[in-house]
Design goal:
Elements: H1 5-18, E1 22-26, E2 32-36, H2 55-60, H3 72-80, E3 84-87, E4 92-95, E5 111-112, E6 117-123, E7 126-131, E8 136-141, E9 148-149, E10 154-160, H4 162-167
Antiparallel strand pairs: 1-2, 3-10, 4-6, 4-9, 5-8, 6-7, 8-10
């Protein structure tokens, strides 16, 4: 089996940068390569957390919270105003803009309409647009450009417009 060492080095660097212990790659020719780190790396600093679970979800799952409270200010706003989470539809790399030199699709405080493109998730060399499911304001962006995100991970949160929140 011939394996491109530069590709392996790139994947190993991604694993190190994102604190991953295991990665599975599927090649176009049908080969599957799995890489596993024998000793897990130190957890990523709080500023690079991609998917902090809200306390309510953690409690509902019956598990003790593993993430520290990231700020009383954030929890107060979540208690007062319901938000709509935007989750990653697949495992992939998060891109905030359509190209490296372009402006991001959205920023904190930006108003979006249902169907607006929020970001791109690259998976297996395919660019997949993530679109807004509701009209509202972006109140959180949990992923940084180039971050590896997991399926179902919250990458953003939208505070729905008043008329949207009243309909739900």
């Amino acid at each position: 089996m011939n394996i491109d060492s530069s590709k392996l080095n790139e994947v190993a660097a991604l694993m190190e940068n994102h604190g991953l212990t295991r990665v599975r790659l599927s090649e176009e020719d049908g080969r599957v390569i799995e890489l596993e780190r024998m000793t897990p790396s130190a957890p990523a600093p709080a500023t690079t957390i991609v998917t902090p679970l809200p306390l309510a979800e953690t409690a509902a799952a019956g598990a003790a919270p593993t993430q520290p409270n990231l700020g009383a200010e954030a929890s107060r706003s979540e208690d007062v105003t319901p938000t709509v989470p935007v989750t990653a539809p697949m495992v992939g790399v998060f891109y905030a803009a359509p190209s490296p030199d372009a402006e991001p699709f959205v920023a904190l405080g930006a108003h979006v309409r249902r169907g607006d493109t929020l970001c791109i998730i690259e998976a297996m060399k395919l660019m997949n647009e993530v679109v807004a499911e509701t009209d509202g304001t972006i109140v959180a962006i949990d992923a940084a450009d180039g971050d590896l995100v997991e399926f179902g991970a919250r990458i953003m949160a939208i505070e729905p417009d008043a008329k949207e929140a009243g309909e739900a």
